[in-house]
Design brief:
The complex is a heterodimer of chains A (about 425) and B (about 280). Chain A has about 425 residues and is α/β, with parallel strands linked by helices. Chain A has three domains: about 160 residues, Glutamyl-tRNA reductase, N-terminal domain (Beta Polymerase, domain 2, 2-Layer Sandwich); about 150 residues, NAD(P)-binding Rossmann-like Domain (Rossmann fold), CATH 3.40.50.720; about 80 residues, no CATH class. Helices cover about 55% and strands about 10% of the residues of chain A. A six-stranded parallel sheet of chain A has the order 7-6-5-8-9-10, sandwiched between helices. In chain A, helix 5 packs across helix 7, helix 5 crosses helix 14 and helix 8 packs across helix 9. Chain A is elongated and about 115 Å long. Chain A starts with a strand and ends in a 6-residue tail after the last helix. Chain B contains twelve helices and no strands. Chains A and B meet through helix 7, helix 8 and helix 13 of A and helix 6 and helix 7 of B.
Chain lengths: ~425, ~280
């Protein structure tokens, strides 16, 4: 059994990636065509904006699926000359292909290290393959293992933790302050692109109320209408700050719009209720002295940038742990695949002994004249019992050896009994 | 019950210590096995401690809270339960480093006392005595929880102010910690007030007893805290610090006998009415 992966990823120019990508319908069509070419093999196609990969499993010896066949198929299907894309392709076989799939599913091979969306896309690729019956037991085993690896990496390492944009880092900060958001008021000061982007990220928290303040009330109204909030005149700033729990500020003002003394008044009016302020304006909208006040958490663009870098560093530092998980699970996959393969081999072994018995009976029984049918049946039954008893111990040993990870036992059995190596 | 009689403080104390080491190890290597070891050891310790307490109660035919030794074991058992609840509810939470040192400390303190002093008191015999003991113990545990939550609040606040959003010490949001603190303070205050009231009613306590003095001080600080928390203006780090002060005061009063070298619980039997003093006990 051979597990093969042929593909290209984000290092390939986008113009070429676009031409070799499969849409949803094309994936199913391509899988059906591949199955027509190789009836006994299994296939799956992963196609995202950053990668296109074809996975195949099954076939050995003359039936083996070669990478050049997959490459030719890609070329024919998309009508792209092989010369154009072959230099960008990578090919992995067997353990390396499984390793690669594990890395892909867990975001280790992604453009943004540790991204989690890819896991959903890999699941989708497997489900599509299963739907058109091009994924069989081997694909099932390997893909399930890949999902398990990704899940372990997500829970046991910090590889997927944190966000990589300023706006999303602000959301991470806020989630550290508040737990429930449906009773919270979000105040957005300024109606620039950055404020809009941050509000977009904040929507995932489903805050109870959104207030938008801007010197130009029409722009405030436009954002408020888009995100289901209320537009307030800029003159109501202190009142809005009194009501808000979360503040996003990004005005283009030349100097702070809120000084410490103003904010002390606001805090008194809000009876020292906890407030989280994300000041993404440059220069800053909130006087830096405000961050020293009790029950105020104020972050500016530098803090958010630091979080972004921290996330990148922290993800890199988790690589060793993540790779260790990939390697651990790869070892277990070998055993699982060997157990999967052992079924047909044990079946062959059984059939081989059965054939010997039948040959020998065909030689013996005609020589034993005078035997009744019942006696002949007894002899057949005896040989059948003897075969089962003789094979019981080897079968149990094979399974036990495989469970212990000694997968070489299958090859040995094949050699010893001259079984079909396919 | 023969098996339970062989369980010692070392059994569950060591289990909690292993759990604590595993919790610390999780910062270096957050593997699921390490988490399982931490949870498994705590579960094993909890089981052993439960059997230990059931056995004690079975032998004396009363709730095992009648002396300082038993009270320490009982409170540490409740704290272990709190740890298990937290870790099973949110496996990523760094609850162990805050709760387990207290559990282990209480078990360690119990180990320094003689369990044989257990029979001297009859505090667990009557409904009122049992209520007195239980309200004080549960109130103490709730106050210790409030203190742990307050420490967590300060650590979380520091993390947020320093910009370490993804610290390895994973804690709940500030808002949740504040709500937990509020709930714990409001639960601890009536429990400890009832417990103290019953104590004064049941036993003729001497006002000069250092344990009594420390208990009154602790109750006073807790009352100030409860009043302080009632006003919405008072929240955040100041409340957290005051909670820690109140929590420590409650803990000192709870550990009064070994700290001050007094024998409050043992002396109780001599102050009990004759009918009560004559019942039960070994």
């Amino acid at each position: 059994m051979k597990f093969l992966c042929v593909g290209l990823h984000w290092k390939t120019p986008i113009s070429l990636r676009e031409r070799l990508a499969f849409d949803r319908d094309q994936v199913e069509l391509a899988l059906q065509q591949l199955r027509q070419r190789h009836e006994e093999a299994e296939f799956a196609i992963l196609s995202t904006c950053n990668r296109t990969e074809v996975y195949s499993a099954g076939g050995e010896g003359s039936q083996e699926i070669r990478s050049d066949e997959i490459i030719r198929f890609l070329s024919d299907f998309h009508d792209v000359s092989m010369d154009e894309f072959v230099p960008h392709l990578y090919t992995h076989e067997n353990a390396k292909a499984s390793y690669h799939l594990f890395e892909v599913a867990s975001g280790l091979d992604s453009l943004v290290l540790g991204e989690v969306q890819i896991l959903g896309q890999v699941k989708q690729a497997y489900e599509q393959a299963a739907r058109v019956s091009s994924a069989g037991p081997v694909m099932h085993t390997i893909f399930q293992k890949a999902f398990n690896v990704a899940k372990r990496i997500q829970t046991e390492t910090g590889l997927t933790r944190g966000r990589l944009s300023i706006a999303s880092a602000a959301v991470d900060y806020i989630k550290g302050v508040f737990e429930v958001f449906r009773d919270k008021t979000v105040l957005v000061i300024g109606a620039g692109k950055m404020a809009e982007l941050t509000v977009q990220h904040l929507r995932e928290l489903h805050p109870g109320r959104l207030l938008v303040l801007n010197r130009n009330i029409e722009r405030a109204e436009a954002i408020a209408a888009r995100f289901g909030g209320e537009a307030w005149a800029f003159g109501r700033l202190e009142e809005a700050l009194t009501q808000a729990d979360i503040v996003i500020s990004s005005t283009a003002a030349d100097e702070p719009i809120i000084h410490a003394s103003d904010f002390a008044r606001v805090m008194k009016a809000r009876r020292q209720r906890l407030i989280a302020i994300v000041d993404i304006a440059v220069p800053r909208d909130f006087d830096d002295a405000i961050r020293e006040m009790a029950n105020v958490l104020l972050w500016n663009i530098d803090d958010l940038e630091r979080v972004r870098h921290q996330t990148i560093r922290s993800r890199r530092s988790e690589l060793v742990a993540a790779n260790k998980i990939v390697e651990d699970e790869l070892g277990q996959l070998d055993v699982q695949l060997a157990l999967l393969q052992s079924g047909p081999i044990i079946g062959q072994l059984d059939q081989r002994f059965q054939r010997i018995i039948e040959d020998e009976l065909a030689w013996l029984l005609p020589q034993l004249n005078g035997l009744s049918d019942a006696q002949r049946e007894k002899i057949k039954h005896f040989t059948h019992r003897m075969k089962n008893k003789m094979l019981h111990a080897p079968k149990a040993t094979i399974r036990e050896e495989l469970k212990q990870g000694r997968v070489g036992v299958l090859e040995l059995i094949q050699k010893l009994f001259g079984l079909d190596r396919r | 019950m023969d098996f339970a009689s062989r369980i010692s403080l070392l059994c569950f104390g060591a289990s909690y210590a292993i759990s604590m080491v595993a919790e610390l190890f999780r910062f270096l290597w957050p593997h699921r096995w390490v988490r399982w070891i931490a949870t498994g050891s705590a579960l094993a310790g909890m089981l052993a401690q439960t059997l230990f307490l059931v056995h004690k109660g079975w032998l004396s035919q009363r709730i095992p809270i009648s002396n300082q030794f038993e009270s320490l074991v009982f409170v540490s058992w409740l704290m272990a339960m709190v740890y298990l609840y937290l870790i099973l509810r949110d496996r990523r939470l760094s609850a162990g480093i805050f709760v387990l040192p207290i559990t282990i400390g209480l078990v360690g303190m119990a180990a320094s006392l003689s369990p044989e002093e257990a029979g001297a008191s009859d505090a667990g015999n009557t409904v009122l005595s049992a209520t007195h003991g239980l309200t004080l113990l549960v109130g103490t545990v709730v106050m210790v929880i409030a203190t742990v939550v307050a420490v967590m609040y300060l650590v979380k606040l520091r993390q947020l102010r320093r910009g370490s959003v993804f610290s390895r010490v994973r804690l709940p949001a500030l808002e949740r910690l504040d709500r937990l603190n509020l709930a714990a303070v409001y639960l601890a205050w009536p429990l400890l007030t009832i417990g103290l009231g019953l104590g004064f009613m049941l036993h003729h306590l001497k006002i000069s007893d250092p344990k009594v003095i420390s208990t009154l001080i602790a109750w006073f600080i807790l009352t100030v805290l409860a009043h302080y928390r009632y006003q919405p203006e008072h929240r955040g780090p100041r409340v957290a610090v005051l909670t820690i002060v109140a929590g420590l005061a409650v803990l000192v009063s709870f550990l009064g006998d070994p700290i001050f070298g007094t024998a409050h619980l043992r002396d109780r039997s001599t102050h009990l009415p004759a009918r009560e003093a004559g019942e039960g006990g070994s």
